[in-house]
Design a protein that fits this description.
alpha/beta, about 290 residues, 13 strands, globular, 9-stranded mixed β-sheet, about 20% strand
Length: about 290
């Protein structure tokens, strides 16, 4: 059993799923995380860990101590947090001679709108919304730390708990009818599996970028229609883009692109557990609905 000291900036669904993956793989995990709440001791899946207070420039100074002891660091925070991570903890990260793995979870939103065309890791970045711009800025600033950084650009994430089926059953989806709007998605378990594979690959260059998406980009309408079919319910009311009050959601629907995952499949010799939304939603329906 291998011992690892892992520090997670942020502890949302992706980080938790990844820690669960390490637990399944029989790793002995010394875990530390951050949250906006007061520093406290917690438990997750029989793992005792410390959650440290970190809210922009207000933070527990013990974070710097823990970072210097970490063998693995995962950043999965909202895009407004990265500037504060670099400002407050950049020196501690750079001073860590034990660090074997340093990962930033970015977003395919950095590519912006490509009118439904394919994009890959070499495609020019031109984010159209504030979140995408912040993600791209964070990527560049983290690269400037001159550390063994790996950047994973994630497509739209769904999980066994958060997915279109659960939203349809609660009758709360926002469903827009937009022509030629295509986007990519990825199940959180595939993200965790790819992160785990990156532990062992010594050929990854500093600052290397990987898109994380499934094999089949398509419209949100197609996914909703399939969800309705397997739940045997009527399709929800269609809203136009103009009727959506959420500006961030409007920005999301304005971007249309197909994100290539060829690099992760070849580089990590990885076969997706959920190659399309069909396998993912069928699995969720059969096991969680």
């Amino acid at each position: 059993m291998k011992n690892i000291n892992i520090f997670c900036f942020g502890f949302g669904q992706v980080a938790k799923n990844f820690i669960n993956k390490l637990n399944i793989e029989k790793y002995n995990i010394n875990l530390s995380t951050t949250s906006r709440n007061k520093t406290s001791s917690k438990k997750f899946n029989n793992i005792n860990y410390k959650s440290y207070n970190f809210d922009q420039n207000i933070y527990d100074p013990e974070i710097n101590v823990e970072i210097k002891k970490a063998t693995h660091v995962l950043i999965s925070t909202p895009p407004e947090s990265e500037d504060h991570i670099i400002k407050n903890f950049g020196k501690a990260l750079q001073a860590n001679s034990l660090l074997e793995w340093f990962v930033y979870l970015s977003s395919t939103g950095v590519y912006g709108d490509h009118d439904g065309r394919w994009v890959n890791e070499d495609t020019f970045t031109n984010p159209t919304n504030d979140k995408g711009k912040k993600r791209l800025k964070a990527e560049r600033r983290l690269k400037d730390l001159n550390m063994p950084l790996i950047i994973f650009r994630l497509s739209g994430i769904y999980s066994n708990e958060k997915n279109i089926l659960s939203r349809l059953k609660k009758n709360i989806p926002i469903f827009t009818n937009i022509e030629n709007q295509i986007f990519s998605r990825i199940h959180v378990e595939d993200i965790s599996n790819i992160l785990f594979k990156s532990f062992f690959n010594k050929d990854i260059k500093n600052g290397e970028i990987f898109n994380v998406s499934d094999n089949y980009p398509c419209s949100y309408k197609e996914v909703v229609d399939y969800g309705c079919k397997i739940l045997n319910i009527a399709r929800p009311k269609t809203f136009s883009l103009e009727e959506i009050g959420d500006d961030q959601l409007k920005d999301f629907y304005k971007d249309s692109k197909k994100v290539s995952n060829e690099k992760i499949k070849k580089f990590f010799n990885y076969k997706l557990k959920f190659p399309t939304y069909i396998e993912g939603l069928n699995y969720i329906r059969d096991n969680f609905i």
